[in-house]
Amino acid sequence: MSFALFKLSIKKNWLLFVIFTLVLMMYSGVMISMYSPENVQNLMQMFELFPPEMMKAFGFASAFTDMTGYLASWLYGLLMVGFPMVYSILLANKLVAKSVDTGSIACLLSTPTSRVKIIITKAVYALLSLTVMLAILFAFNVLIGKAMFPNDLNVEAFLNLNITVLLVNLVVMCISFFFSCVFSDSKLSIGFGAGIPIAFLLLKMLGDVSDKVEILKKISIFGWYDPMSIAAGNTVWVVNGVYLIIIVILLSLSVIIFKQKRLAI
Amino acid sequence: MIKVTDLTLKYRSGKGVFDLNFEIKKGEVVGYLGPNGAGKTTTIRALMGFIKQDDGSASINGLDTFADAPEIMKNLGYLPGEITFLEGMTGEEYLNYLAEVRGMKDLKRQRELIKMFEFSPKGNIKKYSKGMKQKLGIVAAFMHDPDVLILDEPTSGLDPLMQNRFVELIQEEKRRGKTILMSSHMFEEIERTCDHVLIIKEGHLVASADIETLKNSQRKGYEIKTKDNAQAVTLLTKLGFDAKLVNDIVEVYITGESTDQFIKSCSMLHIDSFDVKSQSLEDVFMHYYAKGANV
After folding, report:
1. Which terminus, N or C, of chain A has the lesser number of Cβ atoms within 10 Å?
2. Which Pfam families match (chain B) (predicted)?
3. Residues 113 to 152 of A: which have CB under 8 A from any B CB?
4. CA B205 → CA B5, B209, B284, distances in Å?
5. Is the predicted ipTM greater than 0.90, yes or no?
6. A99 interfaces chain B, CB cutoff of 8 Å
7. Domains in chain B, ordered, with CATH?
């Protein structure tokens, strides 16, 4: 870990972070303000206007009773996965593959900073910035939610939901980061780094549509937990543990591959 | 200081460098010459530890160029051939980063270099002209006063005045005992700065010679216009010079040692104009090889 390089990473990538955080905050704020305890029934009726398969595919479960369930369904079902995914894809590609592709990484490698140090520093920035982003959103949602509807949010269940969603987002970041380390061509890095997480998301959406194709959901990293069940107070520590293991494996592989990589710069 | 033994580095395209052997001693300034695509940059990639060699070994100061790269970089300055800087920064921010990461307290040398090249590191690097980027690269490579310098086509993009400044900088660094490897395809630049020259062609080292030897073997070309060109050619040929008529101009090629005789012979002609013909690196090579074969 190089502190100077970490500071540089912040300097070069803060704008991307701010944009995504602000968009998500705005969206969350709107979602929470749309909620009203009395209107749960009305909302349910609104759902019934849409084909149930479509609603399920987008993660909008039909049966929620409180705000935690509402947020788990409307916000954490798809949005809090999809948006950070775009952030991960863009950032991971920019941090490694793009700088190898353009050759600007030579500026870092011609200083006494080792390859391992460079990659670890960049990975720390990637994971930490995503964690901070989701932490800000968690705090923001709790604050707004509690201010508007003091008794409607189960903070503990909501925290558990945020932890699991954070971990699955970190897995996505690690997938993109891994391919960013593997490929020297930005196009290939984006292709795999975006393609695989998007494929996982589509599998999960398809798997939600019907019980007959539930198997699709099980092979997707996004299908290993049910946001509604976590919002109802259940925990998924085993799934969280598996996510952590995947993160550690992908990061280790990224470092090992980059350490030996041929850099035509 | 820099030692390369049986170094082979192949690309998938089949290009690369093959069985390179050379050694650069401390305080030596060596020019690395070759046409485009000959393998100059590939050799430098191996020396910088960007690509691990397939075979053989390369070391700087006794340290392996791949495994010990970070240690080597503490005391090495590098100027890439095609510089791409980190995005979205000003030149000043980039230099500050380098100073920070190298743990430099004294920025005197950096200020000297900026002054020497009349450079202003303000503004986003993206907006810099090619010459300004080159100047920034030079400052970045020399500012920590390293003992070893690896420079890939260092004067590309610089105007003639700044090219001269650069030659002066190299001469100064040479006096201060620095070890320098610089690639180029401009013979003049190498001629003014280097003690020794390595010539690479299609991935193979084809010559390693002292600059003096190369200079003497180099034939200079002259273009003369006279009142009667045909007669001039006949006369010069009779005196043993390689003269021919091209586009109504007499072209004469002579080696360094016969310059005096040539000038004296020219006094017999009625000369309208007299020009030195600039020679491409290829010409220099060709004649060096030709001579080398005879010896």
Report:
1. N
2. ABC_tran
3. 113-115, 117
4. 12, 11, 16
5. no
6. yes
7. 2-211 (3.40.50.300), 219-278 (3.30.70.980)
